[in-house]
Structures are given as structure tokens and as C-alpha cells.
């Protein structure tokens, strides 16, 4: 009996020792795994701590850089305001020159403010490094931004050359409208039906441009036809009298009425006269003169012909009676 108890106690002691050894071994493996993972991410944690510490160290400089940018932006606004007030009210100053000074000058001021802010915010940064980086990538940038740079250069040349002004009516590549704005990249038109047209400056600079409002005096004309049986000299005198009495028709340059074509159905008279665009416009003047000419022609029995087709029926052919066999049953 005592032997059995002793054996059971020995077995129990052995199990306890094995369990303790197993727990100890598992604890050592767990500790080693934790230490391995801790060592693995130690460099990452250290780097993040350095970045955070560096950010807090540079935060005052970043704030100063932002303040510098704001100051230079305000200086650019002040520059625009001073240029506008100094040059706008002078009669000899061209309007587009003010736009060039405003946009180019303010851009230069903001660029210098950006360089100073970069020097303050980034340790060891110099403007020379920026220029070197731009020089290395100049070829790629040139190809990527070719159209942008071309439009910018064309915009500056348009503003300096001043072929037209804001408010002028122009025609570019069959697109017609009033110039609303001339920016560095594009020219903005307002069409006569109320739409906005944006034309790249490179297109405007390299295309023929018709400036309708370049001069105050504009020539108007229309063609009116009279019948071959009517007196063209009398018709000319009637139209000349109308032009002479009309208040918006200029006496110089002189107006004229000439026979321009012997058409199929009429003798065409071309009527030309000049107006001052500050007093009227071409569509209104043409409409008024045409209405008066038609009324005067009606009063003097002068015909304004229209195309007529003549149909002739020949009855000299013998009549052929249809054959009764050709009739179809109904």
C-alpha cells in the first residue's frame, strides 16, 4: 500500500516538473518573439520620433515662411493697385501696358516671396538648387508645357503690341465677338448671342485678326435691283437724296450709288455710305436706308423685280386619240 502511494507521488511530481518546464520554455519563446518584433519595429519608431521632433523644431520656421508668403502676396496686390492708380488716368498710357505691368510684375513679386519662404522653411535650401533642378528637367518641362509657354509668350506680346483692346469687336478664325479680357494664357470674347469664347493666345497671335471697332467711321453697303424697264438714273437720284437727308450718313467720305451688275432679272445698284459708330451701328443704319429706299421706289413706281419663271406650252403637235384597247378595266 505504501509502495503504491509513493509511486503515485513520484508520478505526480514528475508531471508537475514537466508542466513547469513546458511553461518556462513557452515563456522564454514568447519573450524572445516579443523582443524580436520590438527590435524589428524599433528603427521605424525611432524614425517617426525623429520626424515628429524635426517637425516641431521646424514649425516656427514654417510659420515664418507662411507669413513671408502672405506679405509678398499683399505686396503684389499693393503693386497692382499703385500701377492702376498711377497709369490708368493718363491719356497717353495704353490700357494693355497696365495689364502687362500688373500681371508680370505681381508674378515676379510672388516668385521672389516663394524663394525666400523656401529658404526659411527648408534647411540648406538655396535658390541655386532650384535653378539646377529646373535646368535638369528643362527639356522634359519644355515638351510637357510647350503649349502653355507658347500661349503665355503670345499673351505678353499681344498685351505689349496691343493690336486690339478690351471692348473691341474682333473676328479671329471666323469667331466673332467683343473682347472681355486678355489674360496671359487666353483671350476671352463675348459673342453677339451672349456666349463666351475662349481663344488660346497662340491662335490669336498667329491668325489674321479683324478689328471691327478699330476706327469710328465704318462703311455700309447693300445691293438693290430695279427692272430693266425702269430708269436707273432716276433710281440713283432717289437713293442719293435719301442718303443726303439721313442724319446718320456722313458727308465725308462721300456716299455713292453705282450700277454693279446686269443680272438675269434686274439691274443691280450698289449703295455705299459711311457712318459714325459712336452714333449708330451698321445693322441699324442698313435697315433704315433699305426701308426708306423701298418706300421711295413704291412712291415713284420703280419696280424691284424678283425671279420669274416662264412656262411655255406648245400646241402645234397633232392630237393622238388613245386606243380603246389600252384602257384598263375599272
How is the secondary structure organized here?
Layout: H1 2-87, H2 95-121, H3 127-136, H4 138-144, H5 146-161, E1 169-172, E2 175-182, E3 186-190, E4 196-200, H6 201-206, E5 209-211, E6 217-226, H7 232-245, E7 256-262, E8 267-276, H8 282-299
Antiparallel strand pairs: 1-2, 1-5, 2-3, 3-4, 6-8, 7-8
Helix pairs in contact: 1-2, 2-5, 7-8
Strand tally: 8
Mean model confidence by pLDDT: 78
Could you list the spans in which at least 5 consecutive residues all have pLDDT below 50? none
What percent of residues adopt helix (DSSP H or I)? Answer: 55-70%
Kindly report how far apart the N and C termini lie. 139 Å
Q: For the largest beta sheet, what order do the strands appear in spatially?
A: 4-3-2-1-5
Could you give a short account of the major beta sheet?
5 strands, antiparallel
> How many domains would you count in the coordinates?
3
**Structural class given helices, strands, pairing?**
alpha+beta
Q: Please report the number of helical segments.
A: 8
Order of helices and strands: HHHHHEEEEHEEHEEH
How would you describe this structure to a colleague?
It is a single chain. Helix content is 56%, strand content 16%. It has three domains: 47-136, no CATH class; 151-211, Roll (SH3 type barrels), CATH 2.30.30; 217-299, Alpha-Beta Plaits (2-Layer Sandwich). Helix 1 packs antiparallel against helix 2 (95-121) and helix 7 (232-245) packs across helix 8 (282-299). The longest helix is centred in the first third of the chain and has 86 residues, at 2-87. It is elongated, with a radius of gyration of 46 Å. The strands form two sheets. It has a five-stranded antiparallel beta sheet. The model has no long low-confidence stretch (mean pLDDT 78). The protein has helices at residues 2-87, 95-121, 127-136, 138-144, 146-161, 201-206, 232-245, 282-299; strands spanning 169-172, 175-182, 186-190, 196-200, 209-211, 217-226, 256-262, 267-276. With 330 residues, it is an alpha+beta fold.
